[in-house]
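Quick sanity check, Beta-lactamase superfamily II metal-dependent hydrolase:
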Amino acid sequence: MKSICKYLPGLLFLLAFSLINLCHAQHLSEKILISPHNNVFYKNSPRDLYFVIHQNEHSLLYIDVKNNPLAFETEPLQTEFLESGLLIKISNNELSKIGNGLHSIKFVMDNGEVLRSQLKIVSDSEAKNYGLNVVAFNVGHGTSVLFFLPNGETLLVDTGYDHMAEKYTIPFMKSHLPVNRHGKQRIDHIFISHWHYDHFHGLNNILDAFDVGSIKYNLSEPERGDWRKDPYNYAKHGFEPVHSPQFKVGNVIDDIGGDDVKIKILNAAEFDLERYPYFHSKYFGEWDNANNRSLSFILKFKDFVFNFGGDTYQHGQIAMLQHFPELLAKTHVYHGNHHFHGGLSTDFLKHINPYLFIASACDVAYDRAAFVSDVMNNVVPTLEQESNIFIENLHTFEVGHIVIRVDGSLDWTDSSTEIIYETYYSEADDFPKFRILYLD
């Protein structure tokens, strides 16, 4: 098997980024942890499944389902920042032997501890239609999220680096985007959260590959607001990105995706100071920068809430919490702010109380207090204790792309609701068919 972090985009930038507190973490916890905790396997589109165990120097003895052993392969998952991990592969041939339904995969360690991951076996990946489909791409230290909206439109938020767009996001979209009447695949809307390379550098590659309806950007860095001055301008495409006046704190975008979709802007470079005084620069101090003024929003589809954290730090999160406490009272999926790599507000994360955290990051996150100390050893245990349900934090470095499908009409007030989802540990030479995540 290939190394899970063959590419470390932006690593030199990360190492030089002196604003982050380092914790040199080897283990997320004294406990033995497994990820992902849930998955889905489709018999009409079989693929190998990958799991990661942070085993704290312990080894895996065997895996079984209902006392039937499963063959598996392992390799150490060890990097400069993660010293005790194990990557586990279960082949699609083994998984195809399991009957349909919901199963508990048992991972037995050499110290007698038993880890479990819930697996749903489904015959047909297209048996159920969902209104909203979300793809959180694995683009290393970067961000790119694709929304297949209920009315058939598509929305891409950020692009990641150019080489990640070429190797991962563009092949995926070529497999799954519909073809328009001109014979070209189309992305209807592109949002750029801010002008940092790990968020926009693949934009030219996207424009080369697809027909694009509109590109709207958040005015987080005025010096790059004029696209003509940027070395990666888009003139050759006859296309001009525009600053969107909709990207203003408190605004609602309701002209994308259909009647059941609403996008509420929580953080942006522009805001009405009288209405939203906690966004004043005096509360941000020296951290009043492109990251803290990056685009953050919630996308609501019926009863489901996806929260896009952008690259904000704790200052932006505190301001959001001050002005939108009721709106933020429940998030179902939270796409972590600044890759869980910089400062964050644990109060904010506990308040939004998601079922699923997504960390779009590389292994360097294990060297950051924000991810290890604040998220995994503070926020997640607190939420689990208070709700008495498992809270998952999926790290794209470990599990690959994460795909979510939602019908939007679920009873999210039911504390027994579990998220059952599918992940794909992607390699460029073995790109998967469409993968879906169940929220039911």
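Posting the structure with no commentary besides this: Residues 19-122 form a domain with the Immunoglobulin-like fold (CATH 2.60.40.10).
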